[in-house]
Automatic annotation (TrEMBL):
Organism from which the protein derives: Polynucleobacter meluiroseus
Site entry (Stabilizes the basic form of H active site to accept a proton), positions: 93
EC numbers for this chain: 3.1.1.29
Name of the protein in question: Peptidyl-tRNA hydrolase
Cellular component terms per the entry's GO annotation: cytoplasm
């Protein structure tokens, strides 16, 4: 069973609504659903919420470091609680998926995502689960051919229409989570990936 769910984002009020914080939005929604509260834990460089799922401990984590140092928090908590990489689910924003789309997979490349690169370095393997929440790519916005820089794009709030689509993809992810957590990743993937957007 998945024992650790990590939401990726940047800390601080100024980043709350950034596209890059979609992972934080997901774990905040999940904590609310589970009635769990995030508490700052210095030893894990992050905010941690602990919940029970089918009688098992389930940890939710929001690293307090900036995105490119996310592995510090993930590695520390996983080592302390003896959580194997295959029992970790990382929620990330994904440039290569349109807003409203969510995809789940085990392992694979980092797609240039600095948070994933650092997690892989700290875990020593790419073999952990990822739930990818589509935020779209700045090139899709540029009708005049001048795309916004990726860094500027991810560090800005989504347009209103995109925001509601991202929220819908978070809801889709939360809906398949019970299947995923009980170990039926194939059924969870099938349900999530067959959604038409």
């Amino acid at each position: 069973m998945t024992k650790l769910i990590v939401g990726l984002g940047n800390p601080g009020e100024e980043h709350l609504e950034d596209r890059h914080n979609a992972g934080f939005w997901f774990v905040d929604a999940l904590a609310k659903e589970l009635g769990a509260r995030f508490e700052s834990e210095k030893r894990f460089s992050g905010k941690v919420a602990k919940a029970k799922w089918e009688g098992e401990d389930l940890f939710l984590l929001k690293p307090n470091t900036y995105m490119n140092l996310s592995g510090q928090a993930v590695g520390a908590l996983a080592r302390f609680h003896h959580i194997a990489p295959k029992d970790i689910l990382v929620i990330q924003d994904e440039l290569d998926l349109k807003p409203g789309t969510a995809r789940i997979k085990l392992g694979g490349g980092t797609g240039g995502h600095n948070g994933l690169k650092d997690i892989q370095a700290h875990l020593g393997t790419p073999d952990y689960w990822r739930l990818r929440l589509g935020i779209g790519h700045p090139r899709d916005l540029a009708g005049d051919g001048r795309a916004m820089e990726v860094a500027d794009y991810v560090l800005r709030r989504p347009l209103k229409a995109e925001q509601s689509q991202i929220v819908a993809s978070i809801e889709s992810g939360l809906k398949i989570l019970p299947l995923f957590l009980k170990g039926d990743s194939q059924a969870a993937m099938l349900e999530l990936h067959s959604k038409v957007h």
